[in-house]
Amino acid sequence: MPANKKYLSNNWQRFAKVTAGFFGGYIVTMTFHMALAYIFPHKNVIITSSFTSIILWVALIITAFIAKNGWKIWALYTVLSILFSVLIYLGNTYTPLN
């Protein structure tokens, strides 16, 4: 029995979901953990991020495939990665007084 056409997405939506899930999710995961490392500069953050990064990346992949529109997921992942990149920049340029 073939699938119902209303539940299938077109090729561009499928491409957007796959690329957003893998590449966009990876970029968001890495920028999030780098920002976390700048906010809390401890060894434990780096060690913990090696485990939680895989969990977060898989969750972002699943989120991309559940979404209706792949381009909106790309936009969301781009905004999140820019936000985390700004936090990294601010954490890198901020030098507290000793």
Automatic annotation (TrEMBL):
- Protein's name in the database: DUF3649 domain-containing protein
Q: Which domain of life is it from?
A: Bacteria
The UniProt record lists the keyword Membrane: yes
Chain ranges passing through the membrane? 20-40, 46-67, 74-91
* Keyword line: Membrane, Transmembrane, Transmembrane helix
